[in-house]
Structures are given as structure tokens and as C-alpha cells.
Amino acid sequence: MTTLYLPLDRSEDVPIHRQIYQGLRRAILDGQLRPGQRIPSTRALSLELEVSRQPVLAAYEQLLHEGYLEGRAGSGTFVSVALPDELLKATSKRTKTRAAASPPPAPSGGNDGLGPFRMSLPALDMFPGVLWARLLARNARALTQAQMAYGDPAGLMSLRAAVAEHLRTARGVNCEAEQVLIGSGSQAALRVAAAALLERGDRVAMEEPGYPGARAAFDAAGATVKAVPVDAEGMNVTALQRLRGQVRAAYVTPSHHYPLGTTMTAARRLALLDWAYQKGAWVLEDDYDSEYRYVSRPLGALQGMDTQERVIYIGTFSKVLFPSVRVGYLVVPPSLWQRFVAARMALDLFSPTLYQLALAEFLREGHFARHLRRMRGIYLQRRNALLVGLERHCSDRVAVHNADAGLHVAVLLAEGLDDADVVRRMARRGLTATPLSTCFAGGSKRNGLLLGFGGSDERRLLEATRVLGEVLIDYDNAHVTRIAATP
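Now predict its structure.
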């Protein structure tokens, strides 16, 4: 069982139950939901979609009546194994097309850093550690000699299949298990992508401001990074088109821009894909913090809109589970598969098998989907606590830029405040934050703070904002004193 990506438009005249029916039927016809795959209960889906159970029940009943779904007593609701004739024809055609395009199989072969406002830190206190330990122990006891030897550089097939199923149904990604490449987190995935796609001197377009880790990966490959400004709609594609010379790839975080939190609009996404098609360039989609949105349901991936296979999709389990799991993944177009596998092997051969085995079960048995649903509510409460604290203690010195999604809030500092100096002062008070200015490559920078809230509970966040307010007051007073003392 997994979460489902079913976009609903409440402004349309089409009833909600009809939209749910059409979305599920389309997912089955398109192969995103496969015969025999379990789907969420009506209660779980109604909570996921934030609608009453009645329209979900109506949609399920219609699909059951038409033969697209089947109920199994005591087990739940599944996509029918024996599908209607028109569906069999559609899926048969799609399966043949995918089989022809499938790549060949890969060859075998101060503080503790956990202080309030720490970036990219999930709620470690809420992770189901006992369950995870049980999965690890069970798989450790059952390890075969083959599993103890060198593994497939692309990753364990059972995990790749589970990741592909999750991405198809929850993120709208068009992929098969044979396109999923497992690596050691998103940073390693970026290094693999850079090694596979770039040669020394190649030009890469990147959001400005943007993720410093991506810039480091491209620098390590000897590429030249060209900054492209981000506005309220995401990367400015018009500015991208104005870049002179051949641009080999563009790196974007469309679902939740790092660091400002902007969501790329549909128009910009289409324009970016069109640019890639026309220029023969690649798009590296880092689906950063896409699972957690607080003003709307999670948005589908850019890769799902790509009809010409120009997008390489990057994701990680570091922030939805815990960072030290060190498992990330890429979804690679078939034409690039062998190149990416070779780059993956050159990095560190393969990922640890035991964690892959446990994680595959964690996804396959529905624990991951349940964990995501639970954490959305917890992170909403923590985000709200942070916003309340900022309003109460810091409102005259910071301005919240965006708090719609993800596990951090970007705030802008008042004019004259140096964010790097503020962060140093915060560290002396036990607070961990990231200066916004470090995300800019060019000379024109904005001063602000990136405040993570995932790793701290509400009480701790409220106290941390009080301390932050004191730090900012002390900074202002010291700044005024320096100005007064200047001859």
C-alpha cells in the first residue's frame, strides 16, 4: 500500500467523486497502478485528499462495478488482476512499448549538530525505530552468501521495484524498476549525474540562489556553473534561454525550491522542458522536500510531464526517514542507463545490501506510506509553532519569505544585518542555522536565515525563537554602538 498522487481541482464543475474516479482509472490505464497492487483504504485516501469519505466510496464503488478494482475480504482493495478488455488492450500496448525501450540489466558486480533550526533534519524522535530494528534483524539473519558478496551497482532489484511503485503512484513519475539507480543519498546521486553527463568545461545552469551541494558536485566534475535567477514562478526560463553558448544541463528543485521554497509553475515547467528538447540539454530534477506541503497536496514531479526523456529525477530517503540511512536514487532515461551505471560503479561500486533489504520491506509492507501520512501532521504542528514563535519574538527583525512546504522556513533579515555573523552569534546560544547568503554564487546576495523545524518539537521551537529574538536584539545594539563609535 502506498500514497497516491491524485490532483483535485475544487474550482472545476466536475464533482470530487468523479475526479477521484477519473484519476484512479487513468492511473490504472497508464500503468502507474499495476494489476494486483493494493491501494489505500477509503478512509486513508479521504484523509490523504482532505475530503470526506463519501466521494471516495462512490469512486471505489464505480471502479469495483466496472472491474478495475477488486475487494479481498480481510486484505483490502486491489487493482483487478483480470481487467476489462479495453484496459487489457491499453496496458498490453504500453507494456510492449516499455519492453522495447527497457535498458539491459546492469552487470552484477559546539553542539552535537542537533540544535534547534538545524537544516535537513527530520523528526528523529518520531521514527519507528523498533519496527526498523526488527526489519534489519530479520534480514540480517536471513542474509545469503550471495547477498553478503558484492552487489548490483544499480541497487537491489526488490528495492528498485518498490521505489518505482512509490514514485509512480505518489509522485506521478513515469518509470520502471529498470530505470531506478540506487545510491548513497542525493549528494552521491548528484555526483553520479555530474560524472555521467558532464565533461570538464561543460556549462550547467543552476538556480540563483541554489543548493551549494549541487554546485560543489558540478565543480568537482570540472563544469562551469551559470547562475539563473529564481522568481515567484521558479527558475526564470527566459533568462536561461539568453545564456550564450551550449548549456549541457539545468539543475532545478521545482517542487520545493532550495532555499526559498518557491514552487515552479506549470507554465515554467513546460517552458523548461521545451528548452531542453530544443537545445538537446538535460534537466536534473532534485525533488527536494516534495513530500511535505502545508497549503495544498504534494505536487507531481516535473519528470512526469516529460515526453522526450530529457529529465533525470533525483530523490532521497534521508529526510523522510533519517539521514544516516544513506539511501538515495535516480530515475534515469533508458538512453543514459549504461553511462550512469558506469559512473555509479566508479563512485563506490554499490550500496550496502542490508539496508536495501530492510528498506524494500519497509516500502512494500506499507510502513513508509503510513510514516509519511503521520509525519505530515507532525511537521505541520512544528512549522506552525515556529511561525508563532517568529511572530511573537522576531517579527520586527525578520520577514518570513515562504513556509508553504518542506522542513525549513526561509526568513529575510532587516537591512544592515549580516546573516553569517548572526549565525555565529546563534551558535554561541546553542542554535544551529544556515545563512541564506551562502546559497548565492554571484556578488548580489540577500541576507537571511534558513530555519529548520523538522528535528525539534513545538516547545523547543518556541523557546528557540525567543533566544533568536534576543540574539537579534543584541546584534542590533552592538551594531548601533559600532556606528556611534565610528569617527
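The chain has a mean pLDDT of 88.
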